[in-house]
Amino acid sequence: MGATLTLAAFGLAGCGGGQSTLVARSDASGRIDSLWWLMLVGSAIVVAVVLALLALGLLRRRGTPAEERKQRRPGTTFVAIAGVAIPSVVLVALFALTVDALPKTSPNIDKTKLSVDVVGRQWFWDVSYPADGARTANEIHIPVGVPVDVRVTSKDVIHSLWVPELNRKVDAIPGRTNHVVFDARTAGIYRGQCAEFCGLQHAHMALYVVAEPRADFERWLRRTAAPAPPPANADLERGQQVLLGSACEYCHRIAGTNASGTVGPDLTHLATRMTLGAATILNGRGNLAGWILDPQHIKPGNKMPGTALTGPDLQSLLDYLESLH
Fold it and tell me: Three-state DSSP class for 256?
């Protein structure tokens, strides 16, 4: 009994929080949710019937003499119905329901109004809006009620993008572009995750989809497509020079500066993001300092080396990065 309760607790733990496949926020995830419940109920009925028949057989056996048990054979009609006909009907019905759900979860690019490119890397998500020139990382912003074509690929190994509240999983494969449609019914922040083991930090390769009203999304898109704001004072200018004088500029891009690297996430509007390291830690001054000085301690195996800076240089760099709105 204890083991059963433990397994049930682990199962239900995946049904709540900010990443649940049973919390539908789009028509596609709603169809997946309905299919899941149908399969669960159907499976529960089958298990209950099998257990009931097993119990009935055991009880009847206990009260039957040994000679009579030897002579008794299972009825052909019962075996044909219970062992062939009913399972066939159940399997065909579930197959038909699954096929019927495919159009709802499959991409229909003709009906989408916006395209977003998402590139999986070890271990973060590179996000860009090619029509507008906006680029960010580990966050996908979409307008509510607008079907968005999310074009997914990879630059290194196979990843898998999965935002369960919005749609199914879609593989990110090097040299191939796959599509999934996000069409959020309500505003909110929906957590996603890499669902294909891709290396040491696979578990720390998450992202957020921010669904917001159309006007808010348009403002965000215009701001993100713009270059980084120039330093407003001498301290911020010093921080910018610290960044441009270090190895950071060869791995990261900040639009409007000489930093044009493509190895790591785009930093043009870093201060507007919720997290660092693909949702490994929250975006705050202390966490940002720790990430700059010793990223391997926070996320072992990632491709960013530590940066040796003096105290004043570090504080100026933090000031500059926090000004990148």
Answer: coil
CATH superfamily of 109-221: Cupredoxins -  blue copper proteins (2.60.40.420)
3-state secondary structure of 238: helix
Show the tokens assigned to 5.
Answer: 């309760």
Question: What are 137-168's pLDDT values in tens digits?
Answer: 999 999 999 999 999 999 999 999 999 999 99
Task: Decide the pairing of beta strands 206-212 and 275-276.
Answer: unpaired
* Closest C-alpha to 286, from 299, 276, 272: 276
Q: Is 176 in contact with 249 (CB distance < 8 Å)?
A: no
At 131-143, the pLDDT tens digits run 999 999 999 999 9
Per the listing, tokens 């505003």 go with 187
Domain boundaries 234-322, corresponding CATH code: 2.60.40.420
Count Cα neighbours of 277 within 13 Å in the Cβ-side half-sphere.
26
User: Cα separation of 256 and 260, whole Å?
Assistant: 9
